[in-house]
Amino acid sequence: MSVPLLDLTRQYEPLREELRQAIDRVCESQRFILGAEVEDFEREAAHALGVAHAVGVTSGTDALLEALMALGVGAGDEVVMPTFTFFATAGVVARLGARPVFVDIDPIDYCMNPQQLADRVGPRSKAVIPVHLFGQAANMDAIMEAAGGVPVVEDCAQAWGADYGGRPVGSIGVMGAFSFFPSKNLGCFGDGGLITTADDDLDASLRKLRVHGQSGPYEHPVVGGNFRLDALQAAVLRVKLPHVAGWVEGRRANADRYRRLFGHTDLDGTVRLPDALPGRGHTFNQYVVRAARRDELRAFLVERGIGAAVYYPLPLHLQPCFQDLGYSEGDLPVAEEASREVLALPVFPELDSSEQEEVVAAIAEFYAG
Ligand SMILES: Cc1ncc(COP(=O)(O)O)c(C=O)c1O
After folding, report:
1. Atom 10 of ligand 1, nearest CA residue
2. Contact criterion met (CB below 8 Å) for 130 and 112
3. Residue 86 Cβ < 6 Å to ligand 1
4. N or C end of the chain: which has fewer CB within 10 A?
5. Is 265's pLDDT higher than 90?
6. Ligand 1 centroid distance, CA of 261 (Å)
7. CA-CA distance, 74 to 94, in Å (whole number)?
């Protein structure tokens, strides 16, 4: 039996009719750019996330980019972030001419180490970007304190539905950036993203920046971009939104089941399971274990038709495009070690128990061999 890392057809099938009707509704209206569909989605998303404002944008990458533009990040500025994250978190900083300053992660939650943040934040810091990696909230109280008043933009791309001590991610920093890439907890039919904020002025600037900084017809007090969420994507997201809490519960139930199944093996010490820390609302967008002989294990699983992936094989401070920032191997050792050991296993909500048993049996077979 093969077990995919992710099978979105299982999510699509029960919603097929409703989704097609929503798409039809947009086609009939012939209103594809912003408009009522996007406004309705923004209102519903803001309500679901417990935030005052939600601004629909083109992708998670553009959500981060636009949030930094709204803070005025540019040449000469520094933005502090963890080195162990998807490229976009740092790419947007470099694109604005600013300097990404990388800090190490905590070995248990994989998120930014607050002490290192406190050490690196300084007079040039224009923003701090904690990443709620794999779907678990970063240590936000400690991060907010370490940031010392420097604006915090939460990268929530992987963490729709997570909360820190009851506060939804995206509602703690000055802004939150979400991605609706299809594999996320809430995914659309292409690219999409969202910026959240409680600040009325930031909301107003985000709405301007997403239409080329336009304040009135052909009047541009600032330079923005085309960061508009499509009405078609908004319509798809509106159908999916009421289901996302249930899907997150499904991911959590699958994580619990993995813990029980691994508990019946003698892999303790060989395969380390992810920790759902108290008060961090882990949503398991990815179920990431640490494994001895990781690359061999991955090849073994893939050979048997079991999906397994490495997020991320190279921390950002060691990426070729950031060589001129002057980092070397050994500078951020916790992330470097994680990059050699992490392996994501299938955890999507519709995964069934026999598939999870298959995954765990194959892993046990690998180490027995
Ligand atoms: C942590 C993180 N930040 C940002 C992004 C960028 O989101 P998008 O792919 O929607 O541009 C992603 C998407 O994979 C991500 O995982």
Report:
1. 60
2. yes
3. yes
4. C
5. yes
6. 31
7. 9
- How far is ligand 1, taken at its centre, from the CA of residue 135, in Å? 12
Taking the centre of ligand 1 as the mean of its atom positions, its distance from the CA of residue 170, in whole angstroms, is: 14
Take residue 25 and report the two structure tokens written for it.
């509704």
Q: Using a 6 Å cutoff on CB, does residue 169 contact ligand 1?
A: no
180 CA closest ligand 1 atom index: 10
Question: In angstroms, what is the span from residue 132 Cα to ligand 1's centroid?
Answer: 11
Q: Which two tokens stand for residue 343?
A: 């392996």
pLDDT for 369 beyond 90: no
Q: List, for residues 78-127, the tens digit of each pLDDT value.
A: 999 999 999 999 999 999 999 999 999 999 999 999 999 999 999 999 99
- Calculate how far, in angstroms, residue 63's C-alpha sits from the geometric centre of ligand 1: 9
pLDDT single digits (tens) 315-350: 999 999 999 999 999 999 999 999 999 999 999 999
The secondary structure of 131-179 as a DSSP string is B-GGG----HHHHHHHHTTS-BEEE-TT-TT-EETTEETTSSSSEEEEE
Q: Please state, in angstroms and rounded to a whole number, the distance separating the CA atoms of residues 38 and 35.
A: 6
